[in-house]
Amino acid sequence: MSVKPVDFAVTTDGYDAADMRKRVKAILVGSIGNLIEWYDVYAYSAFALYFAGAFFPASDPTAQQLAAASLFAVAFLVRPIGSVIFGYLADKYGRRNALTASVLLMCFGSLLIAVTPTYATIGVGAPALLALARILQGLSQGGEYGTSATYLSEVSHPNRRGFYSGVWYVTLIGGQLTAILVLLVLQKLFLTPAELKAWGWRIPFVIGAIISVYAFTMRRDMHETELFKESEKIVKKDSLWVMLANNWKTMLLVVGITVGGTSAFYTYTTYMQKFLKLSVGLTDDQTTTVTGGALLFAIMLQPLYGALSDKIGRKPLLIAFGVLGTLGTYPLLTTLQGTKSPLVAFLLICIAWAIVSGYTALTATVKAEMFPTSVRAMGVGIPYALTAAIFGGSVDAVALSFKNAGWEQGFYWYATGCIFVSLIFYLLIPDTKKHSKMAQHV
Q: Residue 442 CB: number of other CB atoms within 10 A?
């Protein structure tokens, strides 16, 4: 499938259904890497229960899970490096080239996990190859966010940029939902627990590699954005690092904007399954059903919130998330912990998503609107990757540490504090819809 060129030279009133379809198609192709990224994250986390024993020789299952979790964290640590590499490629050689390269690297990472022999076969080479695969995935994932966020913002119609940002985030949440569906189908329809542990855990990673190949074939024919082509004619790319240094204050703002949103996002995605099982006490089936249903609800909210930001601006929604998140996180999580009803748990998580979507639906375009074209991919990607690695990827560890210490509510206050920090930035920054740098090249 090729992506036909999108005419960016339209007036602010030049919007119709055909234009929308072309842009949505281009954005979905540019954003499919997000779906694969989050599919990989969830697939590794969910299937670690089955494959940890194949790679780590410890007789204690808990030790095996901890070893697998340590490699899970490795991907977050190398994400900032990936954002530098692929962000540089995107700003110097084009968004299309960087996006194509990143999804190809994703394929290698997933395929390597799928085909790596077990510890019983090759000894320490097994965990070493698993670590290499996670590093490759982490590098790819680190470059995917900033580059795809840049592409979506540049391909979007100026008056619908928030809506398209919401569409972009649908693919991100959709990756998690896809991993949950794969897990359910394998568990309930095709394989026994013994078969999953013996060889079935390889299936989701084969699927991830196949999806990556499909994404690569689509991205090969992507049309480069007009904003990049215009910038390429004007800006000397040998001064890229100098221009990035000139935007260091804006990069710090991205960190501040991201802290609360990324911690909240990981709380209600990767950690929520553990929370529902360990703290709420739901069964495995109830946990999966509640989590999957809440993600479906979240998917529906993203384009709606994004479109709302096109009408009223980005800042009001960010402030609403900051205020409601600061005031509501502790009571929401406390009430959730105390319930035993799957329905009540589902409704509470939906309320949380109604709050968090004030950040998630428009975060990509907000950050892209803060940078000139010449350094947009690196400007968005690097500070985001650093913040996500510190405050996002650590959510599970922080939450479980509080739980193990006997003060689980401490995590609720921690999550509240992260959102409050971002609220301060939301109050101080200008509304990027009104003060956008999308048309600036330097």
A: 15
- Separation between Cα atoms, residue 26 and residue 421, nearest integer Å: 35
- CA distance linking residue 318 with residue 167, whole number of Å: 18
For 118-163, write each residue's pLDDT tens digit. 888 888 888 888 889 888 988 988 888 888 888 888 888 888 889 8
- By the 8 A CB rule, do 113 and 56 touch? no
The overall average pLDDT reported for the chain is 85
| pLDDT of amino acid 142 | 86
pTM for the full model? 0.86
The pLDDT score that the predictor gives to residue 61 is 66
How far apart are the C-alpha atoms of 38 and 140, rounded to whole Å? 12
pLDDT tens sequence across 158-172: 888 898 888 888 888
Tell the burial category of 282 from Cβ atoms under 10 Å away from its Cβ (0-12, 13-18, 19+). buried
C-alpha 29/C-alpha 6 separation (Å) is: 13
The residue among 385, 361, 346, 323 whose CA lies nearest residue 37 is 385
Rounded Cα–Cα distance for residues 228 and 132 (Å): 33
**Residue pointed to by tokens 């690097």:** 382
Instruction: Supply the pLDDT for residue 20.
Output: 67
Which residues touch 17 (CB under 8 Å, ≥6 apart)? none
CA-nearest of 241, 244, 269, 234 to 371 is 244
Mean pLDDT lowest among 3-12, 324-333, 341-350, 405-414: 3-12
> Rounded to whole angstroms, how far apart are CA atoms 256 and 247?
15
Q: Which residues of 165-191 are buried (b: 16+ CB within 10 A; e: fewer)?
A: bbbbbbbbbbbbbbbbebbeebbeeeb
Measured N-to-C along each axis, helices 17-55 and 203-219 cross at an angle, to the nearest 10 degrees, of 150
For residue 6, the model assigns a pLDDT of 44
Phi, psi for 3 (deg, rounded to 5): -105, 115
